[in-house]
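G., before I forget:
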Amino acid sequence: MSAPVFSIAEVEQETGLSKDQLRVWERRYGFPIPLRSNQGERQYSDEDLAKLKVIRRLLDKGMRPGRIMGLPISELQALSGGGQSADRSAPQDLALYLLQTHQTVELHKELSQTLMRDGMFRFITETAAPLSALVGEAWMRGELRIFEEHIYTEILQGILRSAIAQGTGLGGAPKVLLTTLPSEQHGLGMLMAEAVCMLEGAECVRLGVQTPIGDVIAAAAAKQADIVALSFSGNFPANQMSDSLSLLRGNLPSKVGLWCGGAGAMRVKRIPDGVTRISGLHQIGPAISEWRAAAGEPPGLHGG
Amino acid sequence: MSAPVFSIAEVEQETGLSKDQLRVWERRYGFPIPLRSNQGERQYSDEDLAKLKVIRRLLDKGMRPGRIMGLPISELQALSGGGQSADRSAPQDLALYLLQTHQTVELHKELSQTLMRDGMFRFITETAAPLSALVGEAWMRGELRIFEEHIYTEILQGILRSAIAQGTGLGGAPKVLLTTLPSEQHGLGMLMAEAVCMLEGAECVRLGVQTPIGDVIAAAAAKQADIVALSFSGNFPANQMSDSLSLLRGNLPSKVGLWCGGAGAMRVKRIPDGVTRISGLHQIGPAISEWRAAAGEPPGLHGG
DNA sequence: TCAATTGTTTGTCCTAGACAAAATTGAGAA
DNA sequence: TTCTCAATTTTGTCTAGGACAAACAATTGA
C-alpha cells in the first residue's frame, strides 16, 4: 500500500495554481517541497495538496503568499474560517442547511415556493442574492465544497431561467445587453440582473458568460443595444476591470450606456468616466427610469 | 494603427496548445516564429493565430506536427476543409440563417416548435445536436462570431433546461451524476445527455461545468451516484483526458460506472479500462438498459 | 501476413535567471 | 490626522535549452 502521489500537472488541475507558481514557491518559500521520482519529477503528497487548496482559498481572499506560506495547516484553516458573518436570517440558514445535507429536491422546492409567495423582485433581492453571497462565503471558509456550490448554482439558475423565460419578448425600451468578460465565469449575478431589468419592462439580450470585449462591441452594434451591462463577481481581478471598462467605453458608441455591477464592481475605487456603477439590484430600477427620462421615453408602468 | 499582437498565454488560451508546445515547435519546426517585445516576450500575429487554429484542428484529426507545420495556410485549409459534411438538412440551415441575421426571437420560436412537434428525443438527436455541431464548425471557419455562438447557447440552454425541469424528480435507478472537468466549459452536451437520460427514466444530478476531479469523487459519494457521466467537447485537450479519466477511475468505487461522451471523447484512441465510452446520444439508452440488466433492475418502461 | 524490434517524433518536465505589474511601505503636504 | 506620491518589496509569468518517456513509424524475422 503506497501513499498516493500527484504530478505537477495534477496539482495544477486540482488547485488552479500554475506549474510556474508551484515551482517558484518551492524555490522562494520552501513550500511545497515534494519528493522526486526516479526521473526527477515532482511528486506531491496528499498533505501538500490539502494545504495548497487552503492556501489557494486564502489567496483569493486577498492574503499574500509570503505571509501565509510558512504557517502550519491548522493555522491556515483558522485564518480561513475566521470572519464569520452574523447577519444570517432563518430561511437562508435553512437553505444552506438543505444544501449541506444534499437535500436538493427540498431546496428546489423551498426556493420555488419562496418565489411564488414573495414574487420575483422580493425573491431575488431578499432570498436569492443574500443566499448566493452566503454560499460564496461558506465556500471561502471551506464549509462548502465546490460541487455543492455547483449544485446550488444549477438549482437557482433553473428557477431564474424559467421565470425569465415567461417574460421574454414582452419588454420595450431600453434594450439591455447582459454578459460577463472573459475572466468572469459566474453568471448568477447576470441572471438576477436580467430578471430585475425584465420586471422594469426593459428588453434583455443575454450573451452568456465570458464574452471577449471585441464581441461585446460587435454584439451591441448588431443587436442595437441601448445599454451594455456587465456583471463582476467578488474575485474578478480588480486591475483588469478598469482597463477592460475603459477599452469597452472607448469602442462603444457614446450613446450606448455602459453599466457595471456585482461585488467585483464595488471593490474598485474609481471606475472610468462614462461608466455607470450599479451598486445593487435596487439600483437597477432607478437607473432604467433615469435612462428613460434622458431618452424622452415614457416611464414604464413599473416605474416609481 | 498597430496590428494586434498576442502573448503566449493568449495563444494558449485561444488555441488550446500549451506554452511548452508553442516554444518547442518554434525551436524544432521553425514555426511559429513570433516577433519579440522589448523584453523579449513572444508577440504572435493574427496570421500566426489563424494558422495555429487550423493546425490544432488537423492534429485533432490525427495528423502529426512535423508533417504539416511547413505547409502554407492555404494548403492546411484545403486539408482541413476537405471533408466538408454535406448532410445538412433544410431546418438546420434555416436555424443557422436566423442566428446569423440575429433573428433570435424567431430562432427561439422555431426551435420550440420543433421540440413540440418532434418530441424531446427526436428534437435533441435530429435538431439540437447536429445544429450545435454546425454552429461549432461555422465558428471554426470564422462564419460566426463568438457572441453569436453565445446567443445560440443561451437559447438552446433555455429550451433544454425548461424541458428538463418538467421531468425532475420523476426518475428512478440508475442515478446519474453529470458534469464536465475543469478545462471544459461547454455545457450543452451535458444538458442534452441529461435530457436523454431523463427520458430513459434515470435520475439525474447535474453539477454544472468545470468541477475539479476531487469534487466529482466527493459528489459521487455524497449523492450515492450509480454512474458518473462526463461530457467532453471537441476542443478539450486530448492528452489531459486520459490522465483525468484514469485518476477519476482510480478514486471512484469500482461499483460506480464512469461514462464519457461528446466529440472530445471520440477523438482519443484508447480510453482507460473501466471507463465506458458513449459514442453518441443514441448509445445512452442501450447503456442504461445494460446497466439495469447488470444491476438486476427491472428495465424501465422506456427501455426496449 | 503478422508479431516483435528498432528508430523517430513529440509533449512535458526540468533548472535558473529576468523583469514588470501589484502591493506595501515610507515621506511629506493639506 | 488623513491623503497623495514615490520608493521598495513581493509575486507571477516569461525566457532558454536540455532531458526523457510515451506514442508512432519503419524495419526485421517467422
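The longest helix of chain A spans residues 104-140. Residues 76 and 131 of chain A are 26 Å apart (CA to CA).

More on Monday.
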